[in-house]
Structure formats: structure tokens, C-alpha cells
Amino acid sequence: MKTKPITLVLLIINSFLFAQTIEKFSINSGGASVSTAGIEILYTIGEINVQERGVETVSISEGFINAEFRILIDTKVFLQGPLVSPDTPSLMNDDLRSGGYIPTTSPYSDNATCNALVFSVTGNNAIVDWVWLELRSANDNTEIVNARSALVQRDGDVVDVDGVSNVIMRAAPTNYYVVVNHRNHLGAMSASAIGLSDSSVTTVNFTNNGFSTYGTEAQVQLASNDMALWAGNTNGLNQIRFSGADNSTNVIKDFILADPANGFNSVTFTSTGYLLIDCNLNGQGKFSGSGNDSNIIKDNVLVHPGNGFNSPTFTITQTIPE
């Protein structure tokens, strides 16, 4: 019986003499995720007060693998641009899709991709463009917990990259602020944190004028009384300006004049493609002339409820906290 402690001590000594070492740079105290060949592993290292071994300033404590959380969210949003002159009331125009301009790779940082056949769908569920969704912490609405690209249909439904399914967000089921962004519109965020579940789909409808958004006049109210994201963020500064420094219309003019196809440097030239200056998302960028994008910016600035003096130098600023 007395020999057992001696054996245990010898085993411990032996393990220290021949054990492998872990370099400090390989330890992540907060855990992380690793993806390879389509498989994602989530792990944590550093459970508080459960230390198992330490040496100098490096310690390793009990860790464990977490299950991957999947939240389903049914977001709905309108973009003002393709509703300026809608072909069908309450349905966004899908000129980018019909013109073949929408890329199969998202313009956002995750570089999400979709099959080109997604853009062959017509009608209410036709794709209008890519959008960017974020979940932000209920305790700190500047902290992004999860974010990803998605697609928006003509009726405002935000769907996964297959063009039809609800969007899956990778986060634990709890309360989050929900943010929806677009590349040349001002984004909007829910006024409060919303409970999201892994067992049922939660609807977050930014088009509903009864839905509260963060900040003042975060969205524009359309003639239909639906709400939409403000169009005209052509300068990438999350603001819309008609005149003055860094104004959004000068960005359009400079792009038009610099277009290699505009041999005569005409301000009435029309650029085509998937363009940031294309405020109404019709596949054309126009500084002047009929249906130009500058007028959308001017009209938004002049009619904005916060612009009491109808000043052309008024700035519409995105209300999402940074």
C-alpha cells in the first residue's frame, strides 16, 4: 500500500522530464476557431481557476470543445435606390440582376460566394444585391459578435447564398442588436437587442414603419409608408452630402470623368457596371441628365426631416454606433 505514492511521484517526475513543451505563442487564453477542408473546430483554453500546470508566466488550464451555434434569422429590408422609380409598387427593381452585373462573390469582407443560377430567378424573389448582416452584443452595441454576407430579394427578404433559405448566423442564442448594411446605402440597426433562438426563426423587419431603429431618422420613409435604407453613400464615409467637402455627388462626377470609356470627359457620360456611384442600382452611373444618381442625393439631403432649412450642405449621417 505504501509503495503507491512513491510510484505516483516517479510517474510525475518522469512526465516532467520527458513531456513535450508548449511555446507561449501557441496558447490562446480566450479560445478561437480553426477551419480547414470545410470543417470548423471551436475551442477554449483558459477556464478560470481550474489551473492544471504552470511554468513561469505561462499557464495551461482545462479547456473544452464547444458545439457550433446556429441562429436562424428572417431579416427584411428595403433599399431606397431601386424603389425611387419602381416597376412594381413595393417591389425593388432588380436591374443589376437582369443586366448581369451582380458578382457571384460578395463585395464584403467575408468574400462569400453563390452559384450564378441564383441570379436566374425572376419575380418577387429575384435577387437585388448583396447586403451585410451583423449581430452586436446586447451589452455593447459597438461589439460585433458575428457578421456575414447575404442576398436581398425584390420583396425585401434577406436570404442565404442559395437565394431562398433563411440566413444562418454563428452565435449563441441570446439577445443581439441586428444591423443591416449595403455598400452605397446607409445601414441601420435595431433600436434594442432582439432575442434570437437556435430552435425557431426570428423575424426582424426593417421595412415596417413600426419597427424601431437606433438613432434619429436612421431610414427614409417611402411614399408607401414603408421604410428603406437611405441611398447615396457613394463616398464610403457612411454619410450623404450634396455639396461641401467630401460630398457624395463629386464622387460620381470624378468617377464619370475618369472612366476610360469616356473619351471626351463628358459629365453627361453614363458608366455601366456594378458601381458604388449607382445609387438607384440600375447598372448605370450618371452625374447629370435624365435619371441621374446625383438627384437622388440632392433630394434626400433637401427633404431630410433633420434639415429644417433645406440646406444643400446638410449631411445625412449613418446612425450605427462605431
Question: Explain this structure to me?
Answer:
With 322 residues, this protein is α+β, with helices and mostly antiparallel strands. Helices cover 13% and strands 28% of the residues. The protein has helices spanning 3-18, 95-98, 248-258, 293-303; strands spanning 32-36, 39-44, 51-55, 58-61, 64-65, 71-76, 127-137, 144-153, 158-159, 167-169, 175-182, 185-189, 194-195, 202-205, 220-221, 227-228, 239-241, 270-272, 284-286, 315-317. Strands 7, 8, 9, 11, 12 and 13 form a six-stranded antiparallel beta sheet that branches. Strands 1-2-5 form a three-stranded antiparallel beta sheet, with no helix packed on it. The radius of gyration is 26 Å and the shape is globular. The N and C termini lie far apart (66 Å). Residues 1-19, 21-29, 34-41 and 45-62 have low confidence and may be disordered.
Structural topology:
Elements: H1 3-18, E1 32-36, E2 39-44, E3 51-55, E4 58-61, E5 64-65, E6 71-76, H2 95-98, E7 127-137, E8 144-153, E9 158-159, E10 167-169, E11 175-182, E12 185-189, E13 194-195, E14 202-205, E15 220-221, E16 227-228, E17 239-241, H3 248-258, E18 270-272, E19 284-286, H4 293-303, E20 315-317
Give the key terms:
322 residues; alpha+beta; six-stranded antiparallel beta sheet; globular
Task: Give a short synopsis of this structure.
This protein is an alpha+beta fold and 322 residues long. It has 4 helices and 20 strands.
